[in-house]
Design goal:
heterotrimer, A mainly alpha, B mainly alpha, C mainly alpha, B: mainly alpha, D-Maltodextrin-Binding Protein, domain 2, 2 domains, two-stranded antiparallel ribbon, 9 helices, C: mainly alpha, MetI-like fold, 2 strands
């Protein structure tokens, strides 16, 4: 094999393309054969050939990159496999260690819960608000849409996250400097600032207590009482604030959710709203009685996708907390922990167990959400 | 050194006092303007290397006499972790104090706010920087007041090479190691990275031409205590860093922290077959 | 207050709100550019300086003179371009199968594909890592690029499929009467009609490849293969010595330029067609 990585990859790409084309022809031919043997007419045979020919890349990829890895991972999760070392089957040991002993895994679960309970609703709220604002038939609405969606494009770029890291510095980062300037200028802002800081620290203290079984930080926050006038959010410096930085980034990137809500708002039947207006309902009532119920399927969609996305947050945690090991456990979500636990010591067996636990949790959470949707999601106005 | 301090403190109490005196805040921003003591992580000040250094300076050890059983339930381990915590609180009295502003270059450079670095090799200014004239490099002397067995320590991080037992060519690999660590090769290898060779007889050439490196090499030869065993990579660093981080950020109390370290590391060594 | 005045005030208020929100949303961008043009003293100054008093290009000069940065740029471009080419073609093919051909088993396979949306990609990284390690592909670009050739990404397939399904049958029928094969129909009739969704899919794919951090971290870690995200992520803090802010920001600005270009070229398509994804039920 050649030494040049680019050539190596280009050659591999060519080989892969040939392989895929062969698979397309092969799978198509196989399908046609099966249809012929089960008595299908010529047209159906041709359709089968064409269908499987075009779908073959995905089907083959699904087998190679999804099915086989998942089965392998299921098997390995019951072993103590580590790359380069002999393996032994250890039964449920990985799982029991994860559930009963692994403090960091439990921490990542609590963090995910926090991000889902607080971060995702914030995202949805801001996205809905922006969508409502955009839906008012304004000139230049397109420009605003672009600016609100831009963070989605840039958001998970490591360089942009690095800028955030500089912006989030507690003493001379621009965000805290701005908060300080505003607080000094206006007592209302100052009171709001201190109040929010207090609430955030209490809530975070509580969740940290859940993670650690130790409520010292929460007690300390409560003892200190209402924050002093020169307090600002500590962002990436203390465990009480590490998750809030991640949530700030999550809200910044809510552009896709906003587009979904915009679609929903634009799909609201005009007649319903006009009829209500004729009946004398004010715009607020119109929103809550008609528009919002019809938006609930979209809220549900964003909720489900938001949960899965919150679980998978990787780039922000990596760039913000990579070289600050003490803070990372208070902020990372389950997938980041998966990465760390597996590749720290190449413990493939343990990592596989974590992967499967995450999958099970997603499945259960999604099932619960789907069950509950009949309670609050309405597809038609009654 | 801040005004008035001409030599480094001689025991733990002295160090805590020094760190407190040398740390200043700006009440307008609630953040540090000068930080009295900076280990590898300036923000949370939780660093396992510093912790081990402190244990050794008290005359303690990571293992008991059999060389395998972890010794984190010893009084030295406890005093060391308490000292780390006290230093943190001397610099950051509580969690509402902001860290130093993000500056540029080494944290001990003029205007960047650090007064004393724990590790001279890690965040060092450029070798030709003017600030070196006001920097004094000394070994860490532990706490002779409370632990008479204290000794001056310089922590050397020796990046070492090892050959796994299941390698196909163990003897040849061992020969290769001897080759790499001959005097000349050790010198050349470290010259490329501007680090101090592990072999004392290789402390020539670039090592003595740079006064900073020369001073470090002298101290290393005399007081160095290497962190280079075969057992530690089995996860000691990761356990220590996690537990220290929890303790120094007040998420866990001292007793639980030490117990965790002791139990987890013992378990790891047991799994790896070093302990029964 | 007359209704007209109230309405005008309401509109003004709306614009103010929207403008404020826009400023907040794009602020990090502005700060990034502004800081990259500052001198070192201004960047580290304790007070807020919104716009540098004098534009200083030193940061850009030092970044562009850094061979590691340039190589990372080339690597990112190579990775994104090759992956985009392969992934786009195979996604277009698979979407065609699901939308324009009736074949036995189509509904089952389609449902299967949708269900993979629930599987977070990272749940598969562990076994895939072992697989690639056995192939000897660790330390090459292959694991980043090759899987895409197999139409990776159910969401993109779905988007394209919805768009293709909306093409009226008649357009196809004239080609069928002429005796054209499916391949010709796909290439000459269907694809030209879905240019906008193709642009959208290309943009999303490109952004994903350009910003991908975990993949290159696992497979392309060496300094020769580093892509931009990996290289930039460790720029902040080398040996506990923080790099100058303007330099970090300048490398950030340069990194995001392709993203801007691609986004602004395609934003018209994206902002309309994400909406098309058909969500109810």
């Amino acid at each position: 094999m050649t030494d040049n990585p680019y050539v190596f990859t280009l050659v591999s790409a060519l080989v892969t393309t040939a392989f895929i084309i062969a698979a397309c022809v092969g799978l198509g031919g196989l399908a046609r054969l099966v249809v012929r043997l089960t008595g299908g007419n010529l047209r159906r045979q041709d359709q089968a050939y064409a269908g499987y020919f075009f779908a073959a890349p995905w089907i083959v990829g699904f087998l190679i990159f999804v099915v086989i890895p998942m089965l392998a991972s299921l098997y390995w999760s019951f072993t103590n496999y580590r790359i380069g070392q002999p393996t032994a089957v250890v039964g449920l040991e990985n799982y029991s260690r994860l559930i009963l002993e692994d403090r960091e895994f439990r921490g990542s679960l609590v963090n995910t819960l926090f991000l889902t309970l607080i971060g995702v609703p914030l995202q949805i709220g801001v996205a809905l608000g922006l969508a409502v604002l955009l839906n008012q038939k304004l000139k230049g609405e397109r420009t605003f849409r672009v600016t609100f969606y831009l963070p989605v494009i840039l958001g998970f770029n490591a360089a942009v996250l690095l800028c955030w890291r500089l912006m989030l510095n507690a003493s001379n980062g621009i965000i805290d400097q701005a908060i300080r300037a505003l607080s000094n200028a206006s007592p209302v802002v100052s009171a709001l600032n201190r109040g929010l800081i207090y609430v955030v620290e209490v809530v975070n203290g509580f969740f940290l207590g859940l993670t650690n079984g130790n409520y010292t930080l929460l007690q300390r926050v409560l003892e200190t009482g209402f924050p002093a006038a020169n307090r600002v959010p500590m962002w990436i410096q203390t465990p009480l604030w590490s998750k809030m930085s991640v949530i700030l980034l999550m809200v910044w990137i809510c552009g896709s959710m906003m587009l979904i809500f915009l679609a929903g708002l634009q799909a609201t039947p005009r007649e319903l709203l006009e009829a209500a207006e004729v009946d004398g309902a004010g715009s607020w009532r119109r929103f809550w009685k008609i528009t919002f119920p019809l938006l609930t399927p979209y809220v549900f969609y964003n909720l489900v996708l938001g949960l899965i996305a919150a679980l998978q947050i990787f780039e922000p945690v990596y760039v913000l907390y990579r070289d600050n090991q003490p803070l990372a456990p208070s902020a990372y979500s389950m997938v980041y922990y998966l990465y760390q636990a597996t590749f720290r010591f190449n413990e493939i067996g343990y990592g596989s167990a974590i992967s499967w636990l995450i999958l099970i949790i997603i499945a259960v959470a999604s099932m619960i959400q789907f069950r509950l949707q009949s309670r609050w999601v309405e597809y038609e106005i009654r | 050194m801040p005004a008035g301090v001409t030599e480094q403190p001689t025991d733990f109490a002295g160090w805590v006092e020094f760190a407190q005196a040398a740390t200043t805040f700006d009440p307008a921003t609630g953040a540090l303007t000068q930080q009295g003591f900076v280990p590898v992580d300036a923000g949370t000040m939780a660093d396992f290397q510093w912790y081990l250094n402190t244990i050794w300076s008290l005359g303690g050890s990571i293992y008991e006499d059999d060389g395998v059983t972890p010794n984190f339930d010893s009084p030295e381990a406890e005093a060391a972790i308490q000292f780390n915590y006290d230093m943190k609180r001397a610099v950051y009295p509580d969690d509402t104090v902001g860290a130093l502003p993000a500056g540029t270059g080494s944290v001990i450079e003029e205007g960047n706010g650090a007064v004393c670095l724990w590790h001279s090799g890690w965040a060092a200014p450029a070798p030709d920087s003017a600030v070196w004239e006001r920097i004094d490099i000394q070994p860490f002397t532990g706490d002779p007041t409370n632990f008479p067995a204290s000794r001056p320590i310089v922590l050397s991080f020796v990046d070492w090479w090892a050959v796994p037992a299941y390698s196909p060519n163990v003897e040849m690999a061992a020969e290769f190691l001897k080759f790499v660590f001959s005097m000349e090769n050790n010198y050349r290898y470290n010259e490329t990275m501007n680090l101090i060779p592990a072999r004392a007889d290789a402390h020539t050439g670039y090592v003595v031409e740079n006064p900073v490196l020369q001073r470090e090499a002298e101290l290393a030869s005399e007081y160095s205590y290497g962190f280079a065993g075969i057992l530690e990579p089995t996860q000691l660093q990761s356990i220590l860093q996690t537990q220290l981080g929890l303790y120094l950020t007040d998420q866990q109390d001292r007793a639980t922290t030490l117990t965790n370290i002791q139990e987890q590391y013992t378990q790891v060594l047991r799994d790896a077959g070093y302990l029964p | 207050m007359t209704r007209r005045v109230a309405w005008v005030l309401g509109r003004c208020g709306l614009y103010v709100l929207l403008t404020a929100a826009s400023i907040l949303m794009t602020f990090p961008l502005f700060w990034m550019i502004s800081t990259s043009l500052k001198s070192l003293e201004e960047a580290n100054a304790p007070r807020i300086i919104w716009i540098p008093s004098a534009v200083v290009l030193d940061a850009y000069r030092s970044v562009l003179a850094d061979p590691d940065f340039l190589r990372a740029y080339v690597n990112s471009a190579f990775y994104a371009a090759l992956a985009l080419a392969g992934t786009l073609v195979s996604i277009a093919a698979v979407a065609y199968a699901f939308s324009r051909i009736q074949w036995p088993g189509r509904n089952v396979v389609f449902a299967l594909m949708l269900s993979t949306l629930m599987i977070p990609a990272q749940a598969l990284i562990v076994p895939q890592y072992v697989f690639f390690s056995r192939l000897g592909w660790i330390g090459t670009f292959n694991p980043l690029i090759i899987p895409g050739f197999f139409a990776g990404g159910a969401a993109m397939i779905f988007l394209l499929r919805q768009a293709m399904a909306q093409i009226p049958k008649e357009l196809e029928e004239s080609a069928i009467i002429d005796g054209a094969s499916h391949l010709r129909i796909w290439w000459e009739v269907v694809l030209p009609l879905v240019k906008a969704p193709l642009a959208t899919v290309s943009t999303f794919l490109f952004v994903g490849f350009w910003n991908n951090l975990l993949g290159p971290l696992l497979y392309a870690q060496t300094s020769r293969l580093q892509t931009l995200p990996v290289y930039v992520a460790q720029l902040y803090n080398i040996n506990n010595t923080i790099q100058p802010w303007p330099t970090i920001m300048a490398s950030a600005v340069l990194t995001t330029v392709p993203l801007f270009i691609v986004f602004f070229l395609a934003q018209r398509f994206i902002l309309e067609s994400v909406v098309l994804s058909g969500l109810k039920g």
